[in-house]
User: What shape does this take?
Amino acid sequence: MTIFALIIINKAGGLIYNKTFHEGGLNKISTNDYLVLAGTFHGVHAITTRLNPVKNFPAADRASASTAVAGGPGMLTRPEPSSGLEVLESENFRLQCFNTMTGTKFLLFTDTTQANVDVTIRRIYEMYADYVMKNPFYQLEMPVRCDMFDRKLSSYIREINNR
Amino acid sequence: MAHLATGKPVGGSKEQSGGGLRYPTNGKTIYHRPLNRSKTSELSQASFAYLFSEMISYAQKRVTGIQDLEKRLNLQGHPIGLKLLDLLLIREPARTQARPLNIIALLHFIKINIWQHLFGRQADRLEKSSNPDTPDEYMIIDNEPLVNAYVSVPREMSQLNCAAFVAGIIEGVCDGAAFPARVTAHSVGGKEEGEMWPGKTVFLVKFQPEVLEREALIGKG
Assistant: This one.
């Protein structure tokens, strides 16, 4: 059970972070290829989101639900948007995607037998929220260069990989 | 603003005279509260982190260099230190309410009381400069300053330490206690890989010459 790599894609489909944790897990590809991978995944994800039809609420239901639940007009209960592509699996690795509310995507490459990937990825999101978003020197949507984030992430992944 | 006030009938202010301080309807402002009321209350580190982050971004837009930025942060901390000295002394038991009267007592007060109040723990070490040329320099050492918990300084600004804000607070305390000093924050950790305290910070307290002169006179008498 190993975690191979992490990629973070911003909401415009640009690669803002990539890090490999385990030597020999994945073949090395160039930075340019990583950028293409990020952009392509972003596009495919957008299409898969639209592919899956959102279930329609009956109109009468919606009206009564909105008055009962939200307690006022203008607060329609909306169905959850479909999540789009979540997991991509090959013979040798598994790619799990976590899409945040703001459209940032976390892509984690793991061994096919890795368990609790969703917990791991949430913890990484938490670290991102702490050490990237609370860092005064980070510019939104730009590549992540935060020592503190690197350090915490590496030690967390090392702990998991050594388990 | 008007429609907001109608939406929230409770706790809204009566005076809509626009701008300036607004008072709660029951007339009780923060100044009416007993000083000890918030003695043990805590607040969210996340909200502080966002606020501090905005303070730095705000300051950064208005400065030309790193020293300028540190100076600005220092100035933002200074009034806090001045007020904190009085507040914490008032909260002391009656017989120890006097302000610290010598350098060592003052530094201990900062290391223990100020740190405990601000960060919930004491500072890690207190040192006197071992250099005979600078007997006026003292060092307060914090292994991981709370204000820097989420701050990663970019490589091109490596001399910057955002704990300059805390240095400003310390300076305010020293000035308020009539021990005028210059306080600066310096990063000393992170030189080598895998170090225990990468964010280790030294607050260098440099007292004005008249403080040492007075200290020497007191020592004789």
In short: Helices of chain A lie at 31-51, 59-70, 117-132, 147-161. The interface with chain B takes residues 130-131, 134-138, 145-149, 151 of chain A (CB under 8 Å). Chain A has one domain: 3-161.
